[in-house]
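ok trying again, last paste got cut off:
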Amino acid sequence: MLRSILFLAAAGVVIFFLWRRFGPKTVDTRHERSPALPSPGADLSNVVARDVRLWAHLPQSLKDTLLSRVREFIERIPFEGAHGFEVTDDMRIVIAAQACIVTLGHDDYPFDDLHGITLHPDEFVVEESEEDEETGVVTEGYRAISGQSQGSDRIVLSWRDVADSQTRHEGYNVVIHEVTHFLEHSHPGGDRAARAALEAAYESLCDAVDRGEETLLDPYGAEDLTEFLAVAAEFFFERPADLRERHPTLYVLLRDSFRLDPATWQATSS
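nice, full thing came through this time. structure:
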């Protein structure tokens, strides 16, 4: 599945999620607000339990935190449908829940810079250009993608891919992928050791892909370091036990950054 194409060149990619180091942000009251959910409580939890697979794995304490964050996310972040696509309350809840799961290890609210989420019914086409590193020739064209983080202020998603990710088991989650890109842009940080470890894991994947080996991580992560980080985050939440077994150093790196340990979560029937 094709993923997002980033158009902003980063001066250096580092672990993104240590925004607490920079102090709390003030709330931007200029954000457009989405309409409040029609009914709180049971309806919200029922939709998350029914349509977000990761819910069953969360410890109860994190479930309680997640529900309050989902409500805040929906109240503060506007959603819009592209080309007249109708965005329902259930769609907003499903996307908000997956975005907020990424934040559960931290107390701070990381979405002040997010101006909105645009939802397409299916993959959407974007214009892109690619420069050949050896010849300098630039090729322009179009690509169908399932998600895109537009800098640090908007996330664009394909609803079909959001829904499909809940029935797939290969580590794919377009919401987590694009939220990771957003956080990388809006909350840069980390330290040299973390960056060095991330670069080493990235180079290892690139080498394995070049040798034609079958890899746990999606080979798309070999595109560049930013895509590697987003792909690794998907596997960290969707297939944590496999990631911890096959790439223990990378798992610890993400565990310390997200301040979550999903490989220890046990699925429940609730």
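cool. The chain is about 40% helix and 10% strand. The CA atoms of residues 131 and 138 lie 4 Å apart.
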